[in-house]
Specification:
Blueprint lengths: L10 H7 L10 H11 L8 H31 L17 H22 L1 H18 L11 H6 L2 H13 L7 H26 L2 H7 L8 H26 L7 H15 L16 H18 L4 H6 L16
């Protein structure tokens, strides 16, 4: 047992909040970039400060969800090779104080979200509610096969909305991209499930940790992974044809990202099983940076010949869905 597992006092409660998982909120950035591309003139003075407040609000709400997650997962985490050393299953925190921490983090996060704007606050509230749906009985969707993947990955489009609403609070982003982002998150989550399942080595040990694993097999998880990847690509294709055909040139790069990530899921102790460690994967980070750089370049570059080749008429983007109308 390492030193971090024996420290007492305040530290275990910081561990419960999992600040190391805040890196997942990078998924907000796509919403910000999309808003900037859609309306280049929208940023007002002080928008960077507002974005930082929004990011802090999201991190606090997410940490509240992590505290709730760990509290309710404590009994089953004892059956996991590494999670049994977490503060709750190892008995280093008081459950009542963890509940108070969950409430306090959520209250602070939602209060900050309200200061950003009302649609952003509504999206932050949705993020908090999904934590309840995912963790709290009788729903506790994390125990249901496939529904566990779909509900946890729903945080992806919510984070997209959070980033978008910082700059464009009165409208919602394209539905096609939002659905593609959801299915992309489902793909990532299903690969995580595959890595977790393979760690246990047999269905009996896996189902002792999580009831949903009693249904899963490697074959079923792979079928789900293919479904999520294909669905994500389909909705992304609709977005590309509808809004920016130039992005079709980046499709091979992004298809490669799916392949690289799936391959990672077959490695023991990979970052696919622990997404908070993805930033440590230098090769993956470089690949994602290249994908984003190419996508940004294509968003600002007009290539009329593509429309002739694919026989697609350039379409002036219609107004987005307006909230409340």
């Amino acid at each position: 047992m390492t030193a971090v597992h024996t420290r007492g006092g305040l530290w275990p409660y910081i561990e419960v909040a999992r600040p190391d998982h805040w890196v997942k909120n990078v998924f907000m950035i796509l919403g910000v970039l999309l808003a900037l591309f859609y309306r280049p003139g929208v940023p007002a003075a002080g928008w960077v400060g507002t974005l930082l407040v929004a990011l802090l609000a999201t991190c606090l709400v997410a940490s509240g969800n992590y505290a709730l997650n760990e509290l309710l997962d404590g009994p089953t985490d004892r059956a996991h090779a590494t999670k049994r050393y977490r503060p709750v299953p190892s008995g280093r925190v008081r459950p009542g104080l963890v509940i108070a921490e969950w409430v306090a983090l959520a209250a602070c996060g939602l209060a900050l979200a309200w200061l950003v704007n009302r649609p952003f606050a509504a999206a932050a509230l949705a993020l908090w509610l999904m934590g309840i749906v995912y963790n709290v009985p009788p729903l506790r969707t994390k125990e249901w096969p496939y529904l566990d993947v779909l509900t946890e990955s729903l945080n992806n489009p919510i984070r997209l909305l959070l980033g978008w609403f910082v700059l464009i609070p009165g409208r919602v982003p394209p539905v096609s991209l939002t659905l593609a982002y959801w299915m992309l998150g489902a793909f990532f989550m299903a690969v995580k499930r595959l890595a977790e399942y393979r760690r246990f080595g047999n269905a009996e040990a896996a189902s002792a940790y999580r009831r949903s694993f009693g249904h899963y097999t490697v074959e079923r998880l792979l079928v789900g992974i293919v479904f999520y990847a294909t669905t994500s690509a389909l909705f992304a294709g609709i977005f590309i044809v509808r809004y920016r055909l130039e992005l079709i040139l980046a499709v091979p790069l992004f298809a490669g990202l799916f392949a690289v990530y799936l391959r990672m899921g077959f490695r023991p102790e990979s970052a696919a099983e622990h997404p908070e460690r993805l930033h440590r994967e230098a090769g993956l980070v470089l690949y994602v940076a290249i994908c984003l750089a190419v996508a940004v370049a294509l968003m600002v570059t007009d290539l009329p010949f593509l429309y002739r080749w694919f026989r697609v008429e350039p379409i002036a983007v219609s107004p987005l869905w307006t909230i409340g109308h």
